[in-house]
Amino acid sequence: MSREIIAILRGLTPDEAEAAAEALIAEGITKIEVPLNSPSPFESIRRMVAAAGDRALIGAGTVLSPEDVNRVAEAGGRLVVSPNCDLRVIAATRAAGMESWPGVMTPTEAFAALKGGATGLKLFPGNLLGPAGLKALRAVLPPETRVYAVGGAGPANFAEWVAAGASGFGIGTALYTPGLDAGSLATNAAGIVAAYDEACR
């Protein structure tokens, strides 16, 4: 079963990409982003897509321009995640047939992103608003809106976020830090998946 978790592999290198993707998929995490401030991110995306693109939604994070969107598409990515709400990035992403997850914090940004065609919203940094802030935002968002909490959301408080209306999560350093081997990544992923499943019961 696939979970509503995006693995954020900041710092991943191309030589680690295939093994990392396989480790995550084996533990039930099938949404993977390589932030563009990682070494050779487009090559990492290309390798992961070639190895596992039929089993996982793979793409990029920290996408800040339409030009970067096009490069993600050329690498075979199908997921674009940003830390901010840039309508040009959303439009380019949707035009390329990819999922768009812009970063938002305020109702103004959230509604602008949705009007622009965003697939879902990345509440970022989540720790600044917290579950209480998400709950307040949920009161005005269309009920079908998918909201992923990123930053300050993890195994210790998944249940609190889910109760506040989180649809899912983006998980970075709790899952992966630069240089982590695939076995350790799998161990981290297993723990996060178990906590997620418990919170979503």
UniProtKB/TrEMBL annotation:
GO molecular function, one term: lyase activity
Name of the molecule in the record: 2-dehydro-3-deoxy-6-phosphogalactonate aldolase
Keyword Ribosomal protein in record: no
Gene3D superfamilies given in the database record: Aldolase class I
Entry keyword annotation includes Magnesium: no
Keyword field: Carbohydrate metabolism, Lyase
NCBIfam families xref list: PRK09140.1
Pfam families: Aldolase (PF01081)
Similarity comment: Belongs to the KHG/KDPG aldolase family.
Record pathway: Carbohydrate acid metabolism
